[in-house]
Amino acid sequence: MRELTKIVIISVAVFLYFCWPAKVTDSTNPSINSSKGLPLQCQDYTKYATEKHAPLSRGPLELSFMRPPLECRTFTSDVIERVIGEFKSKMTDFDLFRVLENTLPNTLDTTILWFRDDEVEPRTFITTGDIHAEWLRDSARQLSVYQEFIGSDSKLKLLIKGAILQQAEYIKAAPYCNAFQPPPQSKVKRNPSSIDSVTPIPPWDVVFECKWELDSLASFFTLLNDYIENSKEDSILDHLLVKDAIQMIYTVLRRESASTFDEHGNQRPHPYTFKRHTDIGSETLPLSGAGNPVNINTGLVRSAFRASDDACIYQLHIPSNMHLVTELKRLVPVLKKHEISVMGKSLSILLESMAQSIDDGIMKHAVFRHPDFGDVFAYEVDGFGSINIMDDANIPSLLSIPDLGYTSSSDSIYLNTRKMILSKEGNPYYFRGAHFEGVGGPHVGLQYAWPMSLLVQIRTSEDDEEILHLLELLKETTNGAGLMHESVHINSPNGKLYTRPWFSWCNSEFGKTILDLAKRKPWLLFN
């Protein structure tokens, strides 16, 4: 949704740079979030997130308290509240704690616009934040930070089960699509869908946007695998909706594993095309919506768009393939206990074979010798020898490879790749300015780095000094809000110029990062 992002950039930048309110409002006033089931006086959180609210943090940054009052929160979890209390008693950096206090519960506080808490058939609709729709990838990542706690909170567990079943419904209805409307029974207000020229034609009453992004389906597997692992239950795999979704995903993956031309050089039919009337090149696909060709027998799965919603240049997107193979390897052993078949063949065996083919394809086609950095992973390839050397902040990314679980942070190819993409010499989308630095991407331009990239950089680092430097950058560039934003202008003091005041995915990533450090490097937080 590039056009919407441009509007958000302009409006938020102008408002915040010149009109940051001097008045501090009391957060006990119910004036925040509007969605079904909340008091009428709860305003939209997009506006609330651009104002300061007491009590301010006790650190030098005096960061705002950004949690809605209790009556305006969309969901509460006792275990998450306990975690926040535990960190409050131990963290000595009051500003850093305030960012955690605001971000860790943000998805629960503000984005659960519908939750049917039926023990057998729960459903959960999760908005991405200031855009009133659910992205498969975003919602899976938004919930990821809570998965480790579902064994201690049955209500939270049911919420995530409902999210899995809702995503399964979406995938069954439109497996090529990335973002979806609220279910009719939720009675949540809808925004107009982005109706583009897409084949296969999606059901636009269900779909908000239909960009084929491989990581969307991989993210469903992440949500499902994390739930099974943390709940110690795999009975959800017997649910008909989940079975149908997995079968549908396999069918799409097989289609998208095909090359542009067959072994005789004949052009194959395109299983997916996308055309949009736009003056932004990365918002549509070339060659009548099919995208650039990919070669035969690569073992890789093509993706029309990246996790940033930008079009792929070469459609064999390596981070998405890494994400997929990792989740398939997690799912297959559990799936073998359940009878799911496709055309009379065991689905677990078919997916296991696919995972191996993808793995082999990555090592064959995505590893190349860089003249300055040695053996590294490419961001995109086409199987003909063309490679795209870059990284984008959105997960899955090359920076996030260990975070995805594809390889360890000590792997030599990863370390070379990491060094490359965290440098201006190796990554055209690594930006460094007077006040901020990090990986960005083409989505919002060449002056905006994404806090999400710094959070992934922390989680893939063993260097204490690097981590502390990044934590300082993050807490000092929220424009006093104490929330994570989509991107921050690299030359804007205190992060006054940014995009998207309410970007729940990145808020969850911040919470996930602090929880990671508490286990891995507690001395950095509790000293």
UniProtKB/TrEMBL annotation:
Gene3D superfamilies: 1.50.10.10
Species: Pichia kudriavzevii
A Pfam family reported for this protein in Swiss-Prot or TrEMBL: Glyco_hydro_125
Protein name: Meiotically up-regulated gene 157 protein
Signal peptide: 1-27
Database matches in PANTHER family: MEIOTICALLY UP-REGULATED GENE 157 PROTEIN
Source species, domain of life: Eukaryota
Record keywords, A-Z: Signal
SUPFAM superfamilies per UniProt: Six-hairpin glycosidases
Source taxonomy: Eukaryota, Fungi, Dikarya, Ascomycota, Saccharomycotina
